[in-house]
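Dear colleague,

Thank you for sharing your sequence with our group. We've completed the structure prediction you requested, and as agreed, I am returning the results in plain text so they can be pasted directly into your records. Please verify that the sequence below matches your submission; if there's any discrepancy, let me know and we will rerun it promptly.
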Amino acid sequence: MTIVLMVLFVALLAHYIYFLYTVIKGLKKVTRITTPPRDEYFVSIIIPFRNEEENILKNLESIKAQIFPLENYEVIYVNDNSEDNSYNLLFKNKHRYNIRVLSIPSGFSPNAHKKRALRYGIENAKGQIIVTTDADCSHHPMWLQTIVSMFNDKVGFVSAPVLFESNVELFSQIQQLEFAGLVLVGAGLIGSGKPTICNAANIAFSKKAFISVNGFEDNMAFSSGDDEFLMQKIAAKKEKLVKFCFDENSIVKTNSNKSIKEFFNQRKRWASKGLFYNDKYLILKLILIYLFFLSMVIQILLGVFLSPWFFLSFSISLAIKFYIEYKILQSGTPYFYKKISLKVFLIAELLHVPYILFTALTGIRGNFIWKGRKLKR
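Please find the predicted structure tokens below.
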């Protein structure tokens, strides 16, 4: 029995090592040098918002500060039934002919709140390239130019980094490191030709590619996934390339979650669509990764109740996990942080296993709060 279980745990560890190796290999292939954007592209920035009066003007100022010809882009803010003063603040301060503020008509795609806002914005957009970001984000002045420079006739989708701004609080620093890890994993998987995760706070795609895969039509039942479902569909069609923009000017910054409850609601929402990807092989790989994390807990229990050898297998698995994940995070310096705090990393790693187990399981069940709404999935 002990040998059989050991073989199973080794197999799960081997799969996870292979997954992390794929990420590292892909990060080495990610494009880091961009070329000047082509003038013939007209770009539409779509920014959905709901109850963002605390952040919306900071966002607007960073959008206005973009070093990009005014005649070559438009900005469309889409109001998703805000209950605060967000809409009025935007309308009074936009002061640019290329900035519009729209509100979703009643009855327009009543499900999938953020996706319907994006869909309404895209339907009203004139751009050949669509760029999406969030209303609680701020941007470098070269952000738009850097993103657009990734496009040519062969590229259909571009993902770019999102960074949690941290403060002196440990919880904030842990979030920044954990989120940077997610961004780097997404970049590595894109670089290895296996696009899986990205973040709608900083993506761009050609409108033709969006239309060719029927946009969000097959996933409007989900509150999340406006980014990943679309990227995966464009990649699967194999008519256009998916790229990651690894450039510090392309980084979008946003605030970390203020509370643990807010953090878990966000992660549960992100995890809620994992078993509903179109690629069944991808779902199988995600399940195997989840089983690896579950095996870590099981090995501790078996070490207590069956054999101390399982403490050894657990220690080896944990050490390998620590080492490889640290190497991945190192590739984020100096883009995301000047250096990695060993203290923060070790605490984050110790919390990583129970956090993944909890958010994946509760995310599959659904039922979370997002922007003041109670959602099933």
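Summary note from our side: The first helix runs from residue 2 to 27.

Kind regards,
the structure core
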